[in-house]
Amino acid sequence: MDGNGDGVISKKELEKVIRSLGLSFPSWKAKRAFAAVDSNENGLIDTDEELKELIEFAQTNWGLVIYE
Q1: 3-class SS at 60?
Q2: 3-state class of 48 per DSSP?
Q3: 3-41 tens-digit pLDDT
Q4: CA separation for the pair 30, 62 (Å, rounded)
Q5: What is the pTM of this model?
Q6: Which of 4, 29, 38, 57 is the most exposed place for a label (fewest CB within 10 A)?
Q7: What DSSP assignment string belongs to 16-28?
Q8: Which of 37, 34, 31 is nearest to 53 (CA)?
Q9: Which one-letter DSSP state was computed for residue 45?
Q10: Count of beta carbons in the 10 Å neighbourhood of residue 67
Q11: For residues 50 and 19, what is the distance between their CA atoms, to the nearest angstrom?
């Protein structure tokens, strides 16, 4: 998901992944995901805990099965 290799996931990067999966409303889905998991509210998924929560969010809300 980290398209530019900077070690964090931005909303734009998440939107791109959602779009590539063929899911509808990628911007809305990314915004909702960030609202749920970006605990330090810096606009990035930048901690292991936030990444774990993003994976759980995607599996629960988007019906994805993600293997780590």
Answers
A1: helix
A2: helix
A3: 899 999 999 999 999 999 999 999 999 999 999 999 999
A4: 11
A5: 0.89
A6: 4
A7: HHHHHTT-S-HHH
A8: 37
A9: E
A10: 4
A11: 21
Which tokens go with 55?
């994976």
- Token pair, residue 2, equals 């980290």
Q: At 45, which amino acid appears?
A: I
Nearest 10 degrees: Cα torsion 33, 37, 38, 40: 160
Q: Phi/psi of residue 67, each to 5°?
A: -100, 130
Strand ranges for 1-68 from DSSP E: 9-10, 44-45
User: Interior CA angle at 5 toward 17 and 68, to 5°?
Assistant: 60
Burial 2-16 (b: 16+ CB within 10 A, else e): eeeeeebbbbebbbe
